[in-house]
Specification:
Helices cover 24% and strands 37% of the residues. Helix 1 crosses helix 2.
């Protein structure tokens, strides 16, 4: 049996790195009293994995942890036990129990949705140019990795992109749903760089929050925990 644990990574812990988050979750699982499964060998560890690593500095509303269990327990017991030992900034919102043959959630991930808040600067200009930006068949952007830099066409990776501009606060709220598969992952900061370059403006102050991890069934996007 496996436990799919949906939790938030709140603003106060947004700079928590992946290794620190792993250690935090491992400690919480040990303290929870749940029948977690351990790996075999000289140095046993809890068998767990995240659906997707979240970049440092970005909070998330629906992150997903996949944990192997070695005993019977209910979803309600899992949720209660985890929230008893997790800090409020990492509280769990849902639990789903699946059998061991259930596909790995990381393999089912297809897109991620972000809420991006732009403040000041040329925010209005960016919002006004969004329709023209999406009308382009090809949008080239420089993707940087540890090994190289490559120009890629990011337009096929943008599945949804909307913006609402508030003139009173000079703020734009953007909702972006982008590809999140191994062959084509679009990070929100690269999307922002490309959009600002297209609009011919400097990148204003911004905040990014990941709101959903999504899979796909019959062409429809659904929350990863419901796959």
């Amino acid at each position: 049996m496996r436990m799919l644990l949906q939790f938030k990574k709140g603003d106060i812990v947004r700079h928590l790195g992946l290794l620190d988050l792993q250690r935090t979750m491992q400690r919480a699982l040990r303290r929870s009293g749940l029948p977690v499964a351990y790996s075999k060998g000289f140095n046993p560890h809890i068998v767990m994995s995240f659906a997707s690593a979240l970049s440092s500095g970005i909070p998330g509303d629906a992150e997903l942890l996949d944990v192997s269990l070695c005993g019977e327990v209910t979803e309600e017991q899992c949720l209660s036990a985890m929230n008893r030992v997790l800090p409020p900034a990492l509280c769990a919102s849902r639990v789903r129990l699946v059998d061991d043959h259930f596909p790995k959630v990381s393999a089912s991930l297809r897109t991620a949705q972000y809420r991006i808040t732009l403040k000041g600067g040329e925010t209005k200009r960016i919002a006004e140019r969004l329709s023209a930006f999406l009308a382009e068949e090809e949008i080239m952007a420089l993707r940087k990795t540890k090994k190289n830099e490559t120009m890629v066409n990011i337009r096929p990776m943008i599945h949804e992109l909307t913006a609402e501009y508030d003139s009173q606060t000079d703020t734009a709220i953007m909702i972006a749903r982008v590809s999140f598969i191994e062959q084509a992952t679009l990070k929100p900061d690269l999307l922002l760089d490309a959009l600002c370059a297209y609009a011919g403006v400097q990148l204003p102050k911004y905040e990014i929050r990941r709101t959903h991890l999504l899979g796909e069934v019959n062409g429809q996007s659904i929350p990863l925990i419901d796959m």
